[in-house]
Amino acid sequence: MRRYTLNILFCAAAVALVWLAQAEMLDGYVLNILMLIGINCIFAVSLNLVNGYMGEFSCGHGGFMCVGAYAGALISVAFFADSALFGEALFAPWLAPWLFPVILLGGMAAAALAGLIVALPSFRTRDDYLAIITIAANYIIISIIENIDAIGGPRGFSGMKRTVNAMADVIELPWMLMWTLAGVFVCVLVIRRLMSSTYGKGVSAVCQNEVAAEMMGVNTNRVKIMAFMASSGLAGLAGVLYAHIYGYVNAQSFGLLKSTEGLVMVYLGGMGSISGVLMAAVAFTLLIEVLRFVIPWLNETLHAVNLLPAGYQLDQIWTWVFIPLMLILLMQFRPEGFLGNRELSDVFPRLRRWITLK
Amino acid sequence: MTPLLEVAGLSQRFGGLQALTDFSFQLPERELAGLIGPNGAGKTTVFNIVSGFYKPTAGGIVFDGRRINGLKPHQITALGMARTFQNIRLWNDLTVLDNLRLAHYHRLGYGFWSAVLRAPRYRRAERDIETHARDVLAMMKLTDCANELPKNLPYGLQRRVELARALASKPRLLLLDEPAAGLNSADVDELIRLIAWIHGEFKLTIWMIEHQMKVVMALCRHLTVVDFGRVIAAGAPEEIRNHPQVIKAYLGDEAV
Question: How many of the other CB atoms lie within 10 Å of CB of A87?
Answer without folding.
Answer: 9
